[in-house]
Amino acid sequence: MADSPLPVAGREALPLLTLDFDGVICRPPFGRNLGIHRTFLDPAAPPPEATVYPRWLNVPLDHLRFDLRGPMPGVAEALAALRGVRRLLVVTGRRTSPAGWLRRYRLDGFIDGVVVNDTPLKSPHFKLRALEALRADEHVDDDPRTAQLLAQASSTRVFLCDWPRNRDLPYAPRVERVRDLRDLAARMTGG
């Protein structure tokens, strides 16, 4: 489930903050986050299975879809600040690892590891199971469906990065909105 984590010596005592990748760290194409789902899932319903393409097809498709995207504004500074107070793991619904992308933008040094979706589950249920297995204290996402499911079905503290398509929805009280990672870093570090 995880790429080999980066060294975390002395960091084990810090709370674990997991981060979605697209729309939180990586900028969507043309600044428009069209992958946001505005309908919620029933936490009591069985998780639906995803369409999973073979790895030989996923890898080139993901390169085409993601390689030209850059980081969100201020993400390096935000990750640097968060790294001082949290262990940071990327937990992505992607089927291929963004580790190379993180290296290209010199963000890999802030991240303690990457967890990709190697299950038959769609992203929200994959993240629910991954966060439970990791015992994540906190999670940051941009998708309302994922944030709502985590708030309803886990004990993880949930932060939702603001995007126009995730506004004005009836979220559970446990979903906490933040403008972006810079806002979250300022809240967590008192800066």
Give me the secondary-structure topology.
Elements lengths: L15 E4 L35 H12 L8 H9 L3 E6 L6 H6 L8 E4 L6 H12 L3 E4 L2 H10 L3 E5 L13 E4 L2 H9 L2
Parallel strand pairs: 1-2, 1-4, 2-3, 4-5, 5-6
Helix pairs in contact: 2-6, 4-5
Question: Could you please describe the fold and organization of this structure?
Answer:
With 191 residues, the protein is an alpha/beta fold. It contains 6 helices and 6 strands; from the N terminus they run βααβαβαβαββα.
What's the total count of β strands?
A: 6
> Which residues form runs of ≥5 with pLDDT under 50?
4-8
pLDDT average, as an integer?
A: 90
> What overall geometry do the principal axes of the alpha carbons give?
globular
Kindly list the characteristics that best describe this protein.
single chain; 191 residues; alpha/beta; 6-stranded parallel sheet; 6 strands; globular
Summarize the structure.
With 191 residues, the chain is of the alpha/beta class. Helix content is 30%, strand content 14%.
